[in-house]
Specification:
By secondary structure, this protein is mainly beta. The protein has 1 helix and 20 strands. The longest helix has 14 residues, at 31-44.
């Protein structure tokens, strides 16, 4: 198990908007806020040393909880695609293993997964769930767990540079009767396990394509001009913006069939504009399709029908 270390950047564990509930007794409705308080204490304690170091720490910190995670799988291994103004719920499954003296059935024992961008314990960003995981015991010291990670694109959870490779982690907190909202809250009586280094799918920006084939109808052998636009989610403005210099393929599907075939490849220009020409042959549908890149998901436009006579 990797122990947390160092101080966390302020922006990395922000709890935006309505989801920054008042800290309570570790209840589900205050999960994010309570986790933030415990993790911040662990990571701020004697910066530069392990949060669970036996050396004297400058700040009080939680003790090391005997809990580990394994078999952590995020979104069934599929890429996490986030729109400009969307809430994405990402399912996670994992196995929790604990010491015999750790009561995972206690009301104030909470655990859950998260994903992080950058270095574990010093991440550029971290994304958590609104609620802790739910576990079912499979033995006296193991449990099978499920949870969600909640991503709110319109509440400052992501910036555009966050797109790309992430990693996954699991954490568990035993509050042992301590109330994070109480002025007498004693962090040293709280147990924390925080384990990173698991594989996570990429987090990508959603892309969109439009298409218009004209004129309609058209005589056989005449020129058809196909135009459109490629845009992708801008997580900082919560809008879709055109993206240039991207490879896009024009495809055609003959009327009465179900399969599109490639016609030609082009590149998007300023503002994501797309434009090309083809010769009219038979009735059918034209569309643009985009394979995507590491930071941006692929997409296809709905086909635009052209009547050829």
């Amino acid at each position: 198990m990797a122990a947390v270390s160092g101080a966390l950047a302020l922006s990395a564990f922000a709890i935006p908007g309505a989801h920054a509930a008042d800290a309570g007794s570790g209840s589900h409705s205050t999960y994010r806020a309570d986790v933030a308080k415990v993790l911040d204490a662990a990571r701020a304690a004697d910066s530069g040393k392990s949060a669970f170091s036996t050396s004297a720490a400058a700040e009080p910190q939680p003790y090391a909880l005997d809990v580990t995670f394994s078999n952590l799988k995020v979104n069934k291994g599929k890429t996490i695609v986030v729109g400009a103004n969307s809430h994405v719920t990402v399912p996670v499954t994992y196995t929790l293993t604990h010491a015999a003296d750790v009561n995972i059935a206690a009301a104030d024992f909470l655990n859950g997964p998260y994903i992080y961008k950058g270095e574990f314990g010093k991440a550029d960003n971290e994304l958590y769930g609104d609620d802790p995981g739910t576990c079912s015991a499979t033995s006296s010291t193991t449990a099978s767990c499920v949870a969600d990670i909640d991503i709110y694109a319109n509440e400052g959870y992501l910036i555009n540079s966050d797109a790309g490779t992430w990693h996954a982690a699991g954490l568990a907190i035993a509050y042992n009767g301590q109330n994070p909202a109480s002025p007498t809250f004693d962090i040293t009586k709280v147990g924390l396990a925080d384990q990173g280094g698991f594989t996570s799918p990429k987090v990508q920006r959603t892309s969109k394509l439009t298409v218009n084939a004209a004129p309609e109808p058209v005589k056989k052998g005449k020129t058809i001009t196909v135009t459109g636009k490629l845009t992708r989610a801008d997580w900082e403005t919560n809008k879709y913006a055109g993206v240039s210099s991207q490879s896009v393929t024009l495809q055609f599907r003959k009327a009465g069939t179900t399969t599109y075939t490639n016609v030609k490849g082009i590149k998007s220009t300023s503002g994501g504009a797309l434009k090309t020409t083809v010769k009219a042959s038979v009735d059918g549908y034209y569309r643009f399709t985009y394979a995507g890149i590491s930071t941006t998901a692929g997409s296809s436009a709905a086909g635009d029908y052209v009547d050829v006579n």
